[in-house]
Amino acid sequence: MPLRLIFMGTPDFAVPTLLELVAHGHEIAAVYTRAAKPAGRGMKLQPTPVEQEARRLGIPVLTPATLKTPEALEEFRAHNADAAVVVAYGMILPQAILDAPPLGCFNLHASLLPRWRGAAPINRAIMAGDAESGVMVMKMDVGLDTGDVAMAERLAITDAMTAADLHDALAPLGADLMVRAMGALERGKLQLTKQSADGVTYAAKVEKAEARIDWNRPAREVLRHIHGLSPFPGAWCEMALDGEQVRVKILRCEPADGSGGPGDLLDDRLAIACRDGAIRILELQRAGKAPMKAEVFLRGTPLKPPMRLA
């Protein structure tokens, strides 16, 4: 018999899981998400992607500012859910909430736990040069991504992948994994395994202060840094354009031949020297402009050596 679930999630990454649970016949008693925020030119309140989908599906939506009050707990219990599914909700669940559903609360996490517990596992896996990532379903406890693991799926990370690419690959993979986990839970067949104490790393939130490109690093590290921060916040450098230093975000690149001083422009196709090796810029974005392919940028702003990016 399908489960009665509370779904808790906020960004685009969570939407496929919500849709798959509905498609597989589970009853979503309520959706919890973060409150709408002002966005866009008119600063109108913008509901989260999960709220937009939930309202389209006719599912009740709640946006509590906290889950730590007796009132919030009473409301949560009143849904009479068998379990809760949590995907990038963005709010800590206190013990009383975790204990409320009789079958527990289950989180979809975008890493191969215990590696990359925390806020930014997709970005950090790419930036660290990891060969693979994945998704895991775990039964939540009060620790930071420390719960027992139910299921996992792995995915290779190539040097061509940006954070957006990996996000878009993991979201449907995770949705399928959570549906399988809830199916096993429904049948009483879900097995849990304790996380290892070895290999624990923390995926700290990405700060804008770490986005500047350091051309003194080896080319592969520069490439992974750029891709791990693409599209947001976007790794950046400065170029001398039209007689002034202009900040430019680099959104996509590839390995290139050649060598030179770190930051040197090596040809007229945006190959840039690093400490060891070089990268070629494939996509970039000037401040206040839309992202563009390198060839489009070069048609309007032809560049050639000697020039150094800072």
UniProtKB/TrEMBL annotation:
**Gene3D superfamilies, per database record:** 3.40.50.12230
Does the entry feature the keyword Phosphoprotein, yes or no? no
Which parts of the chain span the membrane according to its record? none
Q: Provide the Formyl transferase C-terminal domain boundaries.
A: 205-301
Q: Which key words are in the record? A: Protein biosynthesis, Transferase
For this UniProt entry, the molecular function terms from Gene Ontology, in alphabetical order, are: methionyl-tRNA formyltransferase activity
Domain of life from the UniProt record: Bacteria
Q: What is this protein called?
A: Methionyl-tRNA formyltransferase
Q: Which organism is it from?
A: Bradyrhizobium sediminis
Q: Which gene encodes it?
A: fmt
